[in-house]
């Protein structure tokens, strides 16, 4: 089990099937999924359109190697992603998980400078409370004080973690760091607008724009990790749109296939791509996962994009945002709650410190909802198709259970 002391953890809940916003349990109960399986099931589960596309694809070809081979599901998907991503983010490299998409972005940035004859640029900057994945390269970009660093310590690559430039002083520090260290920097990684697993923290489009401007001014690549924020979650198709910026590299995953099957993508601008376009085999991008551009996953992702085109998902996100604000507001007055915040289809109740976690999670299951508090947050990232009464059941559960929980410790 993930991130789990298996000796002491409660028995995991047996799920037999999923449908719409529901997880169906082996004991006959069903839970409304308040997490959309870690941000991914944006159209709910088992959507008939995605299922049909996957059935067709599995009959034709579920997988073929991507070395020296191409196929329609991949080339169509790459074209469609390029068309909806901002600016000239047009060059797509597929992989099988978000962490690997981040590793590919790191390698792309390193080789970008190397291919231009600049061999000194080997380090990255990321921000306090960042989370960029679980593989060793991606881990080195996570907040060193709030992540799994403690378990791996000196074995990790050494990067620089800076406070998010939310105010003038932090912006000056960020700018100053880029100015002094640009000759050793290969890129700046940011989770645009919402930092996910490192604490569900939000920043403004102005902060994101300021990061982008500083990177451009000092000639350091900006890499946007949209693994969690991509595909409508923050109210726009991609979070970077709200700051009107075009990062040099952007990572996608999670909701890319609407949670149907694993797939991720690292997308580069034309300028980054050009640094690899050469007669020298040594300047090729040195990466190639076995299941790269898996046709079944690409077909699911294409069907998910159809749904974003045909159905009013972003309007649904705006409605979810209003309902989350209204529904979670009563938490603000509960003991031990330090903040309530909402952005798009993300609702967060931050508490002073999370204790009785297993009992808390069980209390949600007993109320028919799937919500898993972690860190210092009790949060919702529901499927974007959640109905008003289902969403109300989720927010009412958070208000009631958080109130009970606050009394457990006194
Ligand atoms: C989930 C996530 C990742 C890692 O993706 P996996 O598919 O779990 O490897 C990286 N960055 C962010 C911001 C994420 O939310």
TrEMBL record:
One GO-annotated biological process of the protein: biotin biosynthetic process
Cofactor(s) required for function per UniProt: pyridoxal 5'-phosphate
Record's keyword terms, sorted: Aminotransferase, Biotin biosynthesis, Cytoplasm, Pyridoxal phosphate, S-adenosyl-L-methionine, Transferase
Coarse class of the protein's main subcellular location: cytoplasm
GO cellular component, one term: cytoplasm
Modified residues (N6-(pyridoxal phosphate)lysine): 254
Protein residues bound to substrate: 38, 131, 254, 288, 372
Keyword S-adenosyl-L-methionine: yes
Reactions it catalyzes: (8S)-8-amino-7-oxononanoate + S-adenosyl-L-methionine = S-adenosyl-4-methylsulfanyl-2-oxobutanoate + (7R,8S)-7,8-diammoniononanoate
Pfam families documented for this protein: Aminotran_3 (PF00202)
Residues with site note (Participates in the substrate recognition with KAPA and in a stacking interaction with the adenine ring of SAM): 3
Record-listed pyridoxal 5'-phosphate binding positions: 98-99, 225, 289-290
A GO molecular function held by the record: adenosylmethionine-8-amino-7-oxononanoate transaminase activity
Root EC class: transferase
Family matches, as InterPro entries: Aminotrans_3, BioA, PyrdxlP-dep_Trfase, PyrdxlP-dep_Trfase_major, PyrdxlP-dep_Trfase_small
Pathway(s): Cofactor biosynthesis; biotin biosynthesis; 7,8-diaminononanoate from 8-amino-7-oxononanoate (SAM route): step 1/1
EC number: 2.6.1.62
Protein's cellular compartments: Cytoplasm
Assigned protein family: Belongs to the class-III pyridoxal-phosphate-dependent aminotransferase family. BioA subfamily.
Subunit field text: Homodimer.
Function, in words: Catalyzes the transfer of the alpha-amino group from S-adenosyl-L-methionine (SAM) to 7-keto-8-aminopelargonic acid (KAPA) to form 7,8-diaminopelargonic acid (DAPA). It is the only aminotransferase known to utilize SAM as an amino donor.
Name of the molecule in the record: Adenosylmethionine-8-amino-7-oxononanoate aminotransferase
Species annotation: Roseiconus nitratireducens
Organism lineage: Bacteria, Pseudomonadati, Planctomycetota, Planctomycetia, Pirellulales
